[in-house]
Amino acid sequence: MIKAIAIDDEPLALEVIRSHAAKIPFLQIAAYFTNAFEALAYMAANPVDLLFLDIKMPDISGIELAEGLQQKPLIIFTTAYAEHAVTSYELNAIDYLLKPFSYPRFLKACHKAHEQLLLKQGNKLPVADSIFIKSGYEQVKIMFDQLLYLEGGGNYMSFILADGRRILSRLTMTDTIALLPAGVFVRVHRSYIVNKNKIDRIERHQLHIAGQVVPVSSAFDAGLMLN
Amino acid sequence: MKYKKIEFGVATFFFLIIALNTVRSISRRYFYINSSNISSYLDELFPHLVTITATYAAFLVINYVVWPKYWLTKKYFEAIGFTILILIMLGLANAVYFSHIRSWEYEQNSLAGAYLNFFSYGLIVASISLAIHVVYVAIREGIIYQYNISRSTQKLSARVTREVILVGGIWMLAILPLLIIKGTGLMRDFGLYYFFVLPYCFAVYFLNLYWLIPAHTYDKTASTLKYLFKLAGTTMLVGIIEMAFLLQTRHFSFAGHLVINWFLPTLITVAISWWVYLANKEKYEQLTSLQTALGTSNANLQYLRSQINPHFLFNALNTLYGTALMEKAEKTGEGIQKLGDMMRFMLHENNQDKIALGRELEYIHNYVDLQNMRLALSPDITVDIQIEEMMGYDEIAPMLLIPFIENAYKHGISLQERSWINVNLYKKNGQLHLDVHNSVHPVNLNDPERYHSGTGLDNVKQRLQLLYPGKHELVVRQNTKEFFVHLSLILNTQKPA
């Protein structure tokens, strides 16, 4: 679980972050701050893994705040201004999100942070075990170890689960890839992503997974073999 | 690859000229001296022709077999091996020639020694021919490379560079056959023109075409007199340099040189450059006008940007986004977020020469999603957008695909009547294909945008011709009910530097 806080002088910008973060089970935002100094006080007293930081703020610029931090947590800048992107690299920021950013884009940044934390702490953090996806008007929780493979095309993605359920969600292939943990799920075809742990057998142009056959295209061979 | 045909034609032409010349000079010698000794005539002729033919054949084999089949496919060992083989064979052929003209060696040396000598001389001559060939290939490939590089930009400086390289390269290449013709005495006559008059003509041509004529046409205070004055000054200045060289030769008197080698060529060159200018004027004007138009629209955009602070805009959009999410209005939020992405594209990508294809497609996806929100509640509208997921990284000039899709929505959708749009975008064999098919509705007489219908596509057509000359195909068909567009584009797939 990533312990994070968010700092932005505008409450509605914080609302965006809150709304996106609610859909990410491995991310816990402990507090939201509109005042940079309150946030600093909190960070002095509490451990914080990840910081969502706005740049243009009245009291102090996000860049200055980041520079001044003693113990640096991972930082994701969230801002409407593109010009500080280069500086953000000098501060080793994990990502630089341009407002307004979509949920898949936000999730991608969080995955990056998650990876970094795993590296830093030598796998002490548990890998995310589930995710919520929107199917129709509901949010469905999908456990990764129940997810066999995914089939998709156009704007829709089918999640095929071990209990035989097929959940249809309005997601593109690229967005879906961003949602899934990279170490476990690998793309084997333009339209298919499989759960590595559930593969029964791999053949030349197809693989068997829980009794079903999934095609493998040559473009993705390398990815499959490497993993 | 048109130059290959030209190359072959020129090589064959020179081969025939030299061969015929050899036959002519030997025949003349023989029929002047030894009227009817046919066999010794042929004995004399044969070795000369063997050398010439063998050299020509060696050129053909190396240029059209070894070069494309081995060198260009990186089979360097095979290429060098074959070349050495050809070298040896050419040496042998030349040895025949030397065995004839150095026939006194038969008496001076042993048979083996004589043969060895003939072969070594033959080999030396063959090596010289090969060396000349190598130099030729180097120059030719250099020209082609430069030409291809500058071909992709349509800027004026690139065009000038291209022409200079082309003319300069051809001039340099022409020296090689002239060296061969040297023996025939043609060098004496042509050399004058080649080395002195032609460079002068080139200089005048380029100066006139790219400097004097444009200055005269675009200068508001220009007059014919002023132009003639400038022209006279330029040609006299360059002419002085030319005359300095010409006067070293004793072909003509000073007056003779002046008239034949300065005045006459000047007249011809100026006429040619004017003709080239007028023929290309349209193209040149299009170039400048489009660049100005682009510059104006850039300027407008800058002005617009200075009026509407984009930062304020994005912050406002984000505020609305947050509000929408708070009110659980997810679709509204999504729409606002996509609008934000589209505006970033307009402000950033739109100004660049080339952008990642993925970015243009992202914009199209956002645009389509937003438009479809508008149409969601109208039952009789069918929109089918099939955009293939593109593998790999490609670049494309911005706003070449988007206008067609915008056009389809602008003119294809009537909220009152049955309408449909079909879009198909896919990549095949390094070519991008876009098909747009939509219904067409009679234009409302009060529509404020009714005069804008053609101009968007016209701009795209022009930009396609400018940026992808010979690399695109655009088909537009329409009748009262439907509108169909097909665009094929050869992408310059480049990896980012």
Cα-to-Cα separation, first versus last residue of chain A: 25 Å
CATH superfamily of the largest domain in chain A, called what? Response regulator
- Indicate the overall shape of chain A: elongated
CA radius of gyration of chain A? 20 Å
Q: Which spans of chain A have pLDDT < 50 for at least 5 consecutive residues? A: none
CATH first level of the largest domain in chain A: which class?
Answer: Alpha Beta
- Quaternary organization: heterodimer
If you had to describe this structure to a student in words, what would you say it looks like?
The complex is a heterodimer of chains A (227) and B (497). Chain A has 227 residues and is of the alpha/beta class. Chain A folds into two domains: 2-120, Rossmann fold; 136-226, OB fold (Dihydrolipoamide Acetyltransferase, E2P), CATH 2.40.50. In chain A, 29% of the residues lie in helices and 34% in strands. Chain A has helices spanning 11-21, 36-45, 62-68, 85-90, 103-120, 173-179, 221-226; strands spanning 2-7, 27-33, 50-53, 74-79, 95-98, 130-135, 138-143, 147-153, 156-161, 166-169, 185-189, 192-195, 199-202, 206-209, 212-215. In chain A, a hairpin with a 2-residue loop joins strand 8 and strand 9. In chain A, helix 5 (103-120) runs parallel beside helix 6 (173-179). The mean pLDDT of chain A is 87. Among the domains of chain B are: 1-184, no CATH class; 381-490, 2-Layer Sandwich (Heat Shock Protein 90), CATH 3.30.565. Chain B has helices spanning 2-33, 38-71, 76-101, 105-108, 111-151, 156-181, 186-218, 224-246, 254-307, 310-326, 330-347, 357-375, 402-412, 453-467; strands spanning 355-356, 381-387, 395-396, 419-428, 431-439, 472-478, 482-490. In chain B, the strands form two sheets. A five-stranded mixed β-sheet of chain B has the order 2-4-5-7-6, covered by helices on one side. Chain B has a two-stranded antiparallel sheet with strand order 1-3. In chain B, strand 6 (472-478) and strand 7 form a beta hairpin. The longest helix of chain B is centred in the middle third of the chain and has 54 residues, at 254-307. The two termini of chain B are 28 Å apart. The mean pLDDT of chain B is 79. At the A-B interface, helix 1 of A face helix 10 and helix 11 of B.
